[in-house]
Amino acid sequence: MSGVASGLRLEAVRVDRGGFPVVHGVDLVAPAGEVTVLLGPNGAGKTTLMEAVSGVVRVVSGTVNLGGRVLTRASRVARVRAGLSHVEQGRTVFADLTVEENLEIAGAGGYDRARALFPELASRRNVRAGLLSGGEQQMLVLARAIAREPAMILVDELSLGLAPVIVKRLIPVVRALADEGVGVLLVEQFAADALSIGDSAYLLNRGTIVHHGPAEVLAEQPELLRRAYFGGGDEPADDAVPAYAATSADAAVTADAAEAATHPDPKRG
């Protein structure tokens, strides 16, 4: 089966929030064995689209297809069983359970692989997840998703609130998963970091795909990114500045820049 056939396909997907359309007729393909990068300014609809794929919010119209199976009206549990994992914003660990218990809940199939990818968690296995650092919690969330042995992982803002050194630790793991055959749909505020490991990229603005192409080509077209984020010659909004084509290292230049770049509003996007 080809990567496209065994991956994720969205066709004309529309999603509403509060009765108003947020995502408009999105077509997107995230093949198995590839990292598909989804970029866009705050409020573009990225998180809403990810939540529609995983079943957190309802798809008003269009089709969600994973590996040839239509999941548009499937429950969240059914989507997980079909091979979909969603790493949501905000490091959603089970705070009162230990690291080991968080991984055991995910399932035994990929348990050893998850631990091998994050050896840092071994010494913390009996620590309650709520007591971990932000970086350790993100490792745990990603490890838990891997332990389910998914066919497709949705990763929403991997770097949110994390120090650049932690982001540099996590990004290669995402690439390694794709190299092993897992499909990855990655939403990331640091465009340069995401594009460096991506195969293809989509730009989403105001709920609509405005560009699609190879990630390496988009990385070489900063003006295209600038237009998508800032709207051509218009002055960028303050809350959009950190997202534009920044690397995680750029965020550490000054304390103010780091705060802005690593703490975007998690409810927007």
Could you please describe the fold and organization of this structure?
The protein is α/β, with parallel strands linked by helices. The protein folds into two domains: 1-83 and 151-157 and 164-186 and 197-214 and 222-231, Rossmann fold, CATH 3.40.50; 91-149, no CATH class. Helix content is 35%, strand content 23%. The chain has eleven helices and ten strands. It has helices at residues 3-6, 46-54, 76-81, 99-106, 111-117, 134-147, 164-179, 191-197, 215-219, 222-230, 255-262; strands at residues 8-17, 20-30, 35-39, 61-66, 69-70, 84-87, 152-156, 183-187, 200-205, 208-214. A hairpin with a 2-residue loop joins strand 9 and strand 10 (208-214). Helix 4 (99-106) packs parallel to helix 6 and helix 5 runs antiparallel to helix 6 (134-147). Mean pLDDT is 83; it is low at 232-268.
Task: Based on the model shown, name its key terms.
269 residues; alpha/beta; Rossmann fold; four-stranded antiparallel beta sheet; 11 helices; disordered C terminus
